[in-house]
Design goal:
Helix content is 27%, strand content 29%. The chain is of the alpha+beta class. It has a single domain, classed as Aminopeptidase (3-Layer(aba) Sandwich), CATH 3.40.630. This is GNAT family N-acetyltransferase.
């Protein structure tokens, strides 16, 4: 490890170039869980999120080696699925759906996850960021809480997925930090 992580930004048009990198990082990060059918569907999620015109991805590199990534895409106006958990909904419900944050084991607990997370959100114009996190990983839930997210409910988006915690973060004023 060099200690310096270079963050590179990618968008929808770059998916074919970065797709295998995302899959490789995932395979390393989930090496002990690759027998799980839900985990095996990760390529579908990459293609699904990457098909959004507003797809945004940040990949961290240690030299030429990818160490992790974060990606997501803006939600379509009027289709903010998290609204059912917030009453009353905010006046500006523009939302960035933060889909994935993954760091390879060798670089965990080095601050890379926060670097990737903050870089992905740094230039967002949406008022909110929303994500799903497995409550079976309380340290991860706490980490997102430390980054400004609040838990607003639960959601199981697929029959074979966990019943995730829905977490929302206000992004207004983020650029003034």
């Amino acid at each position: 490890m060099t200690g310096t992580i270079e963050l590179r930004r990618f968008g929808h048009d770059d998916l074919l170039v970065i797709r295998q990198t995302l899959l490789d990082v995932h395979a390393d990060a989930y090496a002990d869980q690759m027998h799980d059918e839900f985990v095996q569907r990760f390529p579908w999620f990459v293609d699904h999120w990457g098909s959004h015109p507003g797809f945004s991805c940040v990949i961290g590199y240690d030299g030429d080696e990818p160490v992790g990534f974060a990606y997501g895409a803006p939600s379509e106006p009027g289709r903010e699925w998290w609204r059912e958990h917030v009453s009353p909904p905010p006046a500006d419900a523009s939302t960035f759906s933060f889909s994935e944050l993954m760091v390879r084991p060798r670089w965990r607990k080095t601050g890379v996850s926060e670097q990737l997370h903050e870089a992905l959100l740094a230039d967002r114009v949406e008022a909110l960021a929303v994500l799903l996190v497995d409550p079976g990983h309380p340290r991860v839930v706490d980490l997102y809480g430390n980054w400004g997210y609040r838990r607003v409910g639960s959601r199981q988006p697929f029959a074979d997925s966990p019943n995730y915690s829905v977490m929302v973060r206000d992004l207004t004023g983020l650029s003034s930090r």
